[in-house]
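Could you join me in thinking about how sequence relates to backbone shape in a protein? Would you write everything just below, so we can both look at the same thing?
***
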Amino acid sequence: MIKTFIDKLLGKADGAKSRKPRFGKRVEVPASVHGINPELVDRRAVDVVRTLQDAGFEAYIVGGAVRDLLLGLRPKDFDVATNATPEQVKGLFRRAFIIGKRFRIVHVVHGRGREHEVIEVSTFRAYLDNSAAEQVSGNERTSKAQLSGMQHAVDASGRVLRDNVWGPQDQDAARRDFTVNAMYYDPETQVVVDYHKGIEDAQKRVLRMIGDPATRYREDPVRIIRAVRFAAKLSSLGFALEPKTGKPLVASQHLLQEVPQSRLFDEMLKLLQTGHALASVEQLQKLGLAKGIYPLLDVVVQRASNPLVRAVLQDTDRRVAEGKAVAPSFLLACVLWQDVKAGWEQRLARGEHAFPALQDAIDEAFEQRIGDVSGRGKLAADMREIWVMQPRFDKRSGNQPFSMVAHIRFRAGFDFFRLRADVGEASEELVEWWQEFSLTDDARREDMMAQVREEQRQAQRAQQRKAQPVVHRLPRADGAESPPPADDAVPAADAPKKRRRRRRKPGGGQGGASDAGQGD
């Protein structure tokens, strides 16, 4: 009684509220309630969890994988959370690598080559009071020297730049963004640990931010893009953003200006290359974020109705669904082809040579649309090769088709050409020819080239005949038929020649003969 009175005088909360856990209440949900099918869990993720637990550490499958398992889906990626430090995790696995700056995590690699699988292992992190963090004037790039010795730092807007401090599981859960992504699953005991009613929100198909949404967006503005991505990804399952979570999105959008361009570029690719590109564009438009997140993303949204851009977004979603690889160079080559093509045609109209004109148009597109982020290096080189190949598909002469199919980027260039044909920008007949030529043997290729040469000769002869002047005979004025052609006018070769007779001069015949005789 006295304690309660003193608490009220000091402004403290009443007893019931003071007993409420600050970081959420731990609830352990058994398999009989959550219904997760263990057959959907990747055995490699189970091996990582078991290895950590056998070494005496806590370890759980965490994040989106648990959400998908609850929904009866087979997750594509598995993440693990533990109380072991990155160095301790690395020491337990033969092929493990510590990566990251702000968040130091461990990649545990299983298998080799294209069939390898990476299990991402992170250490539980502490929930820190950002008002007590050190403040720097710049961002991650401009303040590298200051940040090197800091564990907890924010910029002038309150965006967290460093917070690599380990902590307990309940604080780690409070740091996560959405309730449905903040659950922990132990594959050994098949128990789900839930601090923020994530199972309840998953059942209601609600995407709810943990904590105050406006504050969480300010701490990390990239959460704005993540909110769009999860809304797009889960929209087909009936999920929608909670109104309180969605309301501050537009007002918080300006905070993205402080995020490094390279990070925004990576987040844009996650929006477009995780199998929900079209849905992401729809969510951006629906939430009022169609413009202003990132300049290149603005172009994608603006051109989403363009036949070629829509075709590549659909094709990207299809390939991801089929488990096939997708390349950002291919997608961006389709998005920016409109700029390259327009610049190229303008230069050709001015009389410039085709190849230099195309190269200049490409340089201009890079400068205007991509800038310094990823417009150089391998991405730009791949995009350039795709574009430069396009006019070569129209030319099937000499050894060029053989060198084309041997090119390391031929498949990307051909797929681009095929998409252009699908939207009526290129010849379907040429697409079929190149498809067969690229897959057949050398003997058949020689036959196909011989056929092309014959077709080209026939076309050339037809063009020459078309270019020759046409002679029209006019009828005679008297109505009679014109004389027959020159065949009847030419004398026969065996006709006798007419003998020419000399005329004799009067009185001069003998004298002439006498003179002639004397000459002998």
Q: What stands out?
A: Residues 8-19, 487-493, 506-520 have pLDDT under 50 and may be disordered. Residues 205-302 form a domain with the cca-adding enzyme, domain 2 fold (CATH 1.10.3090.10). The longest strand covers residues 117-123.
